[in-house]
Write a structure and sequence with these properties.
The chain is low in regular secondary structure and 58 residues long. It has no helix or strand. The two termini are 22 Å apart.
Length: 58
């Protein structure tokens, strides 16, 4: 989710900058608890009111 922060500290929900097929690689060198969300909120304009599935591989 793209949340730009202005110089005055005000936050905005900008349009998504990710595209289908984009990915994030994480490397954990210690035990880690990861919580992942793909903006599941159906009332959120950032995802065009259409949450989509994500794939997670461990």
């Amino acid at each position: 989710m793209n949340v730009p922060v202005g110089e005055n500290g005000e936050m905005d929900r900008g349009p998504s900058i990710s595209k289908p097929g984009d990915h994030v690689d994480l490397r954990a060198e210690n035990d880690v608890l990861a919580v992942i969300s793909n903006c599941p909120q159906i009332n959120n304009p950032v995802n065009d009111y259409n949450p989509t599935p994500i794939r997670v591989m461990v």
